[in-house]
Amino acid sequence: MITAVDFIALDTFSELVPAPDMAAVSIGDPAQMPPGNLAAFPTALRLEFLDIEPAEVDVHGFPEEVLCSREQMAELIDFVRDRHAEQQRYRLVVHCRMGSSRSAAVALVVFQLTQCEFPRRRDAHYANRHVVQLAEYALREPIEIPRKLEGDEPHPYLPLRLQI
Fold first, then answer.
1. From first to last of its 164 residues, what are the pLDDT tens digits of the chain?
2. What is the pTM for the complete model shown?
3. By the 8 A CB rule, do 88 and 21 touch?
């Protein structure tokens, strides 16, 4: 069962010492090596896609394969559902390079599927909308991206440690 989810930056993730109750979703750029500690997590999923929206593909001359795909979303949903169905209790850690867009979107998907504890949900307002839209399509239900509140910092606070 997934009891909690958090999203963090690659640098913070790379310094984590995996605990027996931790699961991980590692998000990197295509062809980027995964963090060295990823294999030490009891269970983990690695996804590779850029932090861009479909409209940016043509503008920057990228191939469509650099976007998060429906197949990757299905893999994520299966991973989350499988972990959540287990007796083992997991704290799920999601990382991407900056810890604010791709990982925030995936954490919102995890929350939608599990309704687990998500202390930093309010900070997920920079979630990658393409990733969220793929999940909404796959799940056939809306996923709320928190609104940035007036007075919030222009960029989300990137914690130096895990919040779960």
1. 999 999 999 999 999 999 999 999 999 999 999 999 999 999 999 999 999 988 888 888 888 899 999 999 999 999 999 999 999 999 999 999 999 999 999 999 999 999 999 999 999 999 999 999 999 999 999 999 999 876 665 555 555 677 88
2. 0.92
3. yes
CA distance linking residue 148 with residue 41, whole number of Å? 32
Distances (CA, A) of 14 to 34, 97, 127, 141, 146: 10, 11, 21, 33, 27
3-state secondary structure the chain: CEEEEEEEEHHHHHCCCCCCCEEEEEEECCCCCCCCCHHHCCEEEEEECCCCCHHHHHHHCCCHHHCCCHHHHHHHHHHHHHHHHCCCCEEEEEEECCCCCHHHHHHHHHHHHHCCECCCHHHHHHCCHHHHHHHHHHHCCCCCCCCCCCCCCCCCCCCCCCCC
Amino acid at 70: R
For the chain, list the domains and their CATH numbers.
Answer: 2-139 (3.90.190.10)
